[in-house]
Amino acid sequence: MNKLCSLTLAAALLCAACHSSEKTSTGIGTRVDSVLALMTLDEKIGQLTLFTSDIDVTGPTMRENYKEDIKAGRVGAIFNAYGAAYTRKLQEIAVKETRLHIPLLFGYDVVHGHRTIFPMPLGEAASWDLAAIEKSARIAADEASAEGLHWTFAPMCDIARDPRWGRITEGAGEDVYLGSKIAAARVKGIQGDGVGSLNSVMACVKHFAAYGAAQAGRDYHTTDMSDRVLRETYLPPYKAALDAGAATVMTSFNELDGVPATGNKYLMTDILRKEWNFTGFVVTDYTSIMEMIPHGIAEDTASAAALALEAGVDMDMQAGFYNDALAGLVKAGKLKESLIDGAVRRILRKKFELGLFDDPYRYSSEQREKETLMSAANLEAARDVARKSIVLLKNDKQLLPLKKDIRKLAVIGPLAHARKEMIGSWCAAGDWTKASTLLEGVKQAVSPGTQVLYAKGCAIDNDSTQSIAQAVRTAQQADVVILAVGEGAWMTGEAASRASLNLPGVQQQLVEAIYKTGKPVVAVLLNGRPLTIPWMDAQIPAILEAWFPGTVGGQAIADVLFGDYSPSGKLPVTFPRAVGQIPLYYSMKHTGRPMDPNNKYTSKYLDERNDPLYPFGYGLSYTTFSYGPVQVDKQEMTQQDELTVTCTVTNTGARAGKETVQLYLHDITGSVTRPVRELKGFQQIVLEPGASQNVTFKLTVHDLSFYRRDMSFGTEPGKFEVFVGTNARDAQGTTFALR
Ligand code: BGC
User: Fold this and answer.
1) By three-state DSSP, how is residue 122 classified?
2) Whose CA is nearest to atom 4 of ligand 1?
3) What 8-state DSSP symbol labels residue 273?
4) Catalytic residue check, 285
5) Could you read off the pLDDT of 456-497 as tens digits, one per residue?
6) Which helix (H) or strand (E) is 545 found in, with range?
7) Residue located nearest, by CA, to atom 10 of ligand 1
8) 0.90 exceeded by the pTM?
9) Is the CB of 285 under 6 A from ligand 1?
């Protein structure tokens, strides 16, 4: 290119840049168009391409020459690169060495914290504390943006009802209502004051859609469901995240109704853009355009690329198929360039909104890195969320909380001092060497005179029983045993499906051997999904579900064990008794032959109960709560009314405590069958011993609406039951009618 031409280009871009502070949509639109007008077809396609750097590995392929790709304008966005210095270095290549100087976008999976790691998302969901969840996402975004990141691949909004699926740990669990509230809270936290504010990053709603319904819980597997189930159960959390302003969407690996999500026009165009008016951009999941070939829906690179673009996918993550095929398709007259232009516009718009044309380096700040990364305040917030996420599953004879001055305490188990596991999977730039273990948390919490013994007992997942005897001897010396068992972080997350949900390896043998010592045993579970632990539930007097609790997880668990915090977590997912019960979730249907133990011809198993080990919404406290009768302010409600539902909750124990009061609804008869219970509201209250509070919920016709027989969304007159209680099983009800 001659000098004059390149000067003209630079001037045009400068002009685009200097106006970009005018954040009006039309203002940005004009600027986007002025850049687009300068671009060659290849440069446009470069903007539609996202490649990984080699700083982190989150998928099966690498891109060795990504710096060359940047220089050549073959890539408009980079993921898995972070750090103020490194992102600046890469940005310099794009801004100084490419013809059009268009800045790069940097994305990363900041899923539950960036450097300060919070509990796994499923654990956070167990807090049911939307403000705490939003704060966790806010801190993650603050840290990530300081390191030059503009974009996180979160929140994961996939409803998951199959704990065999390892990715159940990345979401908010099984429920539509809770999942939607949490999805929105996470987006608000991630995007803070909005795209373009310095300590925010763009959210990416993933994985669109219905990835959590992979058959048999096997990752990447086929998903197939009715449109009714899709719309009623799986879509609402994604929609809630978009309504909260999420800037981008990621496709999912699964097929839906025979079409992989990445080539699925019904999802990406009809629902996302036309029904929901989504105006941001859509990125594929890792190499998922390429995967449409083994799926069996595209023959080659070109047909896969065309299928994705025509379905509504703007950016190709890591497959390089847009790079390889789109130009040829346009030149051969097989693809309209206007489709490419539309995608480029949506991506450039975000770069403008982020302020990157004003200052491409504005997020890469060593100063902010120093101030924010793992700051004392961030660590304290992580400890707070971790405490709130812990669920007390059992506490016979009030074994918990433990006294801090116990003479001798044994901390036993493969998860007791397992630093790496504390931060779980998808831990972004989290440094596991800085995490505290349960053993350390306990040692810090107990009184100086307490002796803390430790034995590992066995590995997380191998067959050796060699160390069990030593652990038994250690237990025998102690007054109380804290037994930490569960999963390895690598056993959850992506590509981590399990066919058994028992404790892995020989951990069950360890648990039984320690139990036989006759010592009081408190089991602490560290894991990313519901496990099948009926034996433990029957024999071990106290059980805490601590998930993967994050950087300060050790202290947080100790806070609960020794009563500095009374547990308040509630399960966001059902715990089955046996894998054979799966899928098992609270909002099931009655069937025509509801379970009757005395009647063979009813819906049940020969060899297992129907009900779960712990129901959705379940979690105990160190105090107890009683629920008075549920009252409604009218027996009949009209389409214009609101129904007020009230229940008095009393703290009947000896300590202050927090309770999550849950409201469930059941539409008794409809033009289509309705779930036996559906969560429609919850409130967290803190009560002193002996104190009572009237808890009031307002139900609107929206809460009573559903997809009717003809798939229109609305209500039907008839009778309803409304329940208020402490979990999805233990809730009292009353009835009312809708006219
Ligand atoms: C995962 C996504 C993730 C992406 C980028 C994929 O394998 O499914 O959730 O955002 O990798 O790391």
Assistant:
1) helix
2) 286
3) I
4) yes
5) 999 999 999 999 999 999 999 999 999 999 999 999 999 999
6) strand 542-545
7) 153
8) yes
9) yes
